[in-house]
Specification:
The complex is a heterotrimer of chains A (111), B (98) and C (121). Chain A has five helices and two strands; from the N terminus they run E-E-H-H-H-H-H. With 111 residues, chain A is mainly alpha-helical. Chain A has a single domain, classed as DsrC protein, C-terminal domain (Arc Repressor Mutant, subunit A), CATH 1.10.10. In chain A, strands 1-2 form a two-stranded antiparallel sheet. Chain B is an alpha/beta fold. Chain B is built from four helices and five strands, in the order E-H-E-H-E-H-E-H-E. Chain B starts with a strand and ends with a strand. Chain C is of the alpha/beta class and 121 residues long. Chain C has one domain: DsrEFH-like (Hypothetical Protein Ychn, Chain: A), CATH 3.40.1260. Chain C has three helices and five strands; from the N terminus they run βαββαβαβ. Classes of the chains: A mainly alpha (111), B alpha/beta (98), C alpha/beta (121). The interface between B and C is medium-sized, with 26 and 26 residues.
């Protein structure tokens, strides 16, 4: 078991740094995880992270990249629902990195 | 004596086996066994007949997990985990029909 | 992906009592991510997987039923439920989480014969 230390509180993670307890997530933890991924959180990043949290809340799964891209396109418009935009924000994969920052499990089928 | 059934009555013969062997007392349905006490299922009549001979209990958290908390056949006695322990403790012996 | 194959998942187990239903769902989501032709068949106790209103707090188990509603996002739109299985359990289409096609046993069998890959759960 691994853990991260944020604001004097300890959070358990798996060996890849994904939060184990979804309900412990907060903006401060998100910022911390983003830094470990070399990402400076902007409003655009938050928009994707919040979208993922809402998606998980409704369906109890972290969507695959293809599904995330399509669903973002539907909700936020075609200029955001494409790979260039999302990989621009999360270079190592919007599924992997954005889910990690959002405190969600790694998407099913994501290696 | 307490008899516990944890398999779906439409997939396994454990409920039949229990009902044809047991002579009376308490039956507790848990896990997939809880489908036996839902209104409109194919073993409802058999279950109602058994209720004349046995006290039939169901573990409510298992019924609610399966989305059927509102379909309990009337006369079946709902229990929570504390009630489960109570049943196990108050009966001298217990057979689990695995 | 060079060739699209027809995958059918045959679901015959109730949720939670065994791990089959959850395992099947996870493999469905993985398979769908590879752009295959996926269909899901629910028969026998498998129809219970789609029952509305599942509340799993009391058994401290993850309620995975909302994920069936996300299948549409994964372009998995072929969901088949066997008629008599549903009737024997006192269920109707209104009891189900998602919209499905209701088929007879014979129609289910014919559909199975058309597949390239059949996965059994």
């Amino acid at each position: 078991m691994s853990s991260i230390e944020v604001g004097g509180k300890s959070y358990e993670t798996d060996e890849e740094g994904y939060l184990l307890n979804l309900s412990e997530w907060n903006a401060e933890v998100a910022d911390y995880i983003a830094k470990t991924e070399n990402i400076d959180m902007t409003d655009q990043h938050w928009e994707v992270v919040n979208f993922l949290r809402e998606y998980f809340e409704e369906y109890q799964i972290a969507p695959a990249v293809r599904v995330l891209t399509k669903s973002i396109g539907k909700k936020l418009g075609a200029e955001k629902g494409n790979s260039e935009y999302l990989y621009g924000l999360f270079p190592y994969g919007p599924g992997k990195q954005a889910c990690k920052i959002a405190g969600l499990p790694k998407p099913t089928g994501c290696v | 004596m307490l008899h516990i059934v944890n398999k779906s009555p439409l997939t396994s013969n454990t409920l039949d086996s229990c009902l044809s062997t047991a002579t009376g007392g308490d039956i507790l349905l848990i896990e997939d066994g809880v489908y036996a006490v839902t209104r409109g299922n194919a073993v409802e009549a058999k279950l109602r007949a058994a209720m004349g001979q046995f006290r039939v209990h169901v573990l409510m958290p298992d019924l609610e997990a399966r989305g059927l908390g509102d379909r309990l056949v009337e006369g079946v006695l709902p229990v929570d985990y504390a009630g489960f322990v109570e049943l196990a403790a108050s009966n001298k012996t217990c057979q689990s029909w695995l | 992906m060079s060739e699209v194959k027809k995958f059918m998942f045959v679901n015959r187990k109730a949720p939670y009592g065994t791990i089959y239903a959850l395992e099947s769902l996870e493999v469905v989501l993985i398979t769908a991510a590879f752009d295959q032709d996926v269909s899901l068949m629910f028969l026998d106790d498998g129809v219970y997987q789609l029952k509305k209103g599942q509340q799993t707090k009391g058994i401290e188990t993850k309620n995975f039923s909302p994920a069936y509603r996300a299948l549409e996002d994964y372009d998995v739109e072929k969901l088949y439920v066997e008629k008599e299985s549903m009737q024997a359990r006192g269920l109707t289409e209104e009891d189900l989480l998602v919209s499905v096609t209701v088929l007879s046993r014979a129609e289910m069998g014919a559909l199975m014969d058309e597949q390239d890959v059949v996965l059994s759960y």
